[in-house]
Amino acid sequence: MDLSKFFQSKKSMGLALGGGAALGAAHVGVLKAFAEKGIKPDMISGTSIGAFVAAHVAFGKPVDEIEKIALDLDWLDVTAFKISKMGLLTNKRLGKQILDHLGMVTIEEAQIPLCMIATDITNGEKVVLNEGPLHKAVMASSCLPGIFAPVEWDNRLLVDGFLCENVPVSPLSEMGAKNIIAVDLTTNRDFKRPDDIIDVLNNTFDIALNNMIKTQVEDKNIKWIQPKLSAYNKADTRQTKKLISEGYDAAIKVLEENS
Q1: Does 9 qualify as catalytic in the annotation?
Q2: Which residue of 74, 164, 181, 223 has the lowest C-beta tally within 10 Å?
């Protein structure tokens, strides 16, 4: 696909930011590459950490400010202990990050049309959040089941959207996007023989995500940016600078190869 024609087209362009926990810092690198090339999405979607980043983009935060937020973010900034039969922790601090940086706003107030993906843990349904409190929507989309207590939303119990659509491209099509850029942080990785239960769980999630992405990549209206992040830990926020660089390099490569 010739990306020069892709971006110059009058057809609306959507940007989908996938989940990946601490790997989400790579999204910032992608955004830096876009800013450098003068590329702005007409609409944006996010799942999990992608929802957190997408929220800042949609509400007009410059990429340098988003980078500073990412560099300052620590695991303790987004989690807290919670005595609950539904989860070991709560991610209310993640919601507070949104409140601190963007205020008490609703999704529909965004400067760029925005939606996020969550999962109703009571029935497995995909839930597209395109209205309502922004901070609560980010919490719901980023709520890792079994770790964080589900977020209550209109009589639903919502958890992380990665269970349904880790790279949320379908809502962008429904919003009218004709061209979609999708940033996938989790499937372009090397698997290894598990050494312990943590490795088993990591491989389990990543295999499921791989299978999910396979059906999406067949769509010719989607251009994929897939940084190779196998060497990075999804829970380690100390690697943020390197992840930003990986995201930037991957995005620049795609943009320049197809210009």
Answers
A1: no
A2: 74
